[in-house]
Amino acid sequence: MAAxxxxxxxxxxxxxxxxxxxxxxxxxxxxYLTTGSxxxxxxxxxxVSAVPPITLxxxxxxxxTLPRQALAAAMARAVDTPELDDSPLRYGGPxxxxxxxxxxxxxxxxxxxxxxxxxxxxxxxGSAGAIDQICxxxxxxxxxxITEAPTFSGTLRTFRGHEAEIVPIGMDNDGMRVDDLGPxxxxxxxxxxxxxxxxxISNFHNPMGVTLSxxxxxxxxxxxxxxxxFVLDDDAYGELYFPGWEAPPALSAMSECNxxxxxxxxxxIVATGLRVGWIHATPAILDRVTRVRFEMGNxxxxxxxxxxxxxxxxxxxxxxxxxxxxxxxxxxxxxGLREYCEPYLSFRRPGGGFFLWVELHNGLDGLxxxxxxxxxxLIAAGGYGFYPDRKDPGNHMRLAYSWVREDELHEAAxxxxxxxxxxxxxxxxxxx
Length: 432
Ligand SMILES: Cc1ncc(COP(=O)(O)O)c(C=O)c1O
Known about the structure:
Layout: H1 2-18, H2 28-32, E1 54-55, H3 68-79, H4 98-112, E2 121-124, H5 126-138, E3 144-148, H6 153-161, E4 165-169, E5 171-172, E6 175-176, H7 181-190, E7 195-200, H8 214-226, E8 230-234, H9 251-254, E9 260-265, E10 277-280, H10 283-291, H11 300-310, H12 314-340, E11 345-347, E12 355-360, H13 366-376, E13 378-379, E14 381-382, E15 396-400, H14 409-430
Parallel strand pairs: 1-13, 3-4, 3-7, 7-8, 8-9
Antiparallel strand pairs: 2-10, 5-6, 9-10, 11-12, 12-15, 14-15
The structure holds pyridoxal-5'-phosphate.
């Protein structure tokens, strides 16, 4: 009886809702962001390859060496508290599990040379969640964010979602072209705009793989501070350097956190599915972020699991072994590219991270090669998706080598060479 009445109600409601235009109720961001994906590379889904594809698509850790057992044991320890202690399974507060924030503070103090405390860290839903929360605290519609071009497409999406105006600044092999920064901020300010952030991926940049030089770090910090603009440093990959790498000092340490908001993550050094990241900034800045944190913080159980996994030097051991894995993979990819792709492209080997950025030659276009590669059984991103205006001035591809099996990387290079050859053939046929 009750069910009948409710189905009558549901039918009435369906009639009332069927003609409503959902867009009338939607925020501007939910209207113009037409996908929920952080990586919108315009892959042609209708193209099918005859062979199972090799994916050099995303910045995801090596699946074979994920510390599955250690994480499972860590979760068991995390929730196995005395009967009346429900803390791992109870609301945890907006800052996040204090021992994990202390662990981060100890590692930052040790590795970066500027002493910080748990109060300089706030735990978030990955670094993407960190950037979203920072925008909630500091970005109003119309505020300007200066981003490197190219940059991580997922963050561009976040900035768009917060209705910021994105203004690009160029890059080269030493990172952001900081000499252009002062004049750019001054021009924007003269136009009546409020520049809030300069967003940089300072170490092993996504997608370019380059690292901002020490000298440019000085300039960036000084120029941004002189104009009252925050440096937002997305340091997702800084710990994944290869042996022999001489890391420049961290922006947060150089500035002693003055005017710098950094974000970090366990996604790349452990696993993306953890969704545990952090904001590193002064307690005053973090206070502003917690004020607009409406989702009651992230999972205390997961944060405790990560802590149980990471403590007593285990995180350091894991990262040390992963550096070797990724270096071997990068070498395998570079060897394959040298063997098969030499006429079509060139590249500069990065000192760490997950990405190799290749420049296509002879007018080969990143989008065309991306589509041709799918047909050959290779998924990789054309460079254009990483530019705020989706225009790649130099014809690039981003090859992510972290996730794929090491023994597939040589074959990946062979498939890329075939794709390049087919596009080149098509170009020469078209020009006849
Ligand atoms: C530069 C950069 N920032 C942030 C993210 C998002 O990572 P997380 O899983 O920590 O949210 C990624 C992921 O690819 C990235 O490359």
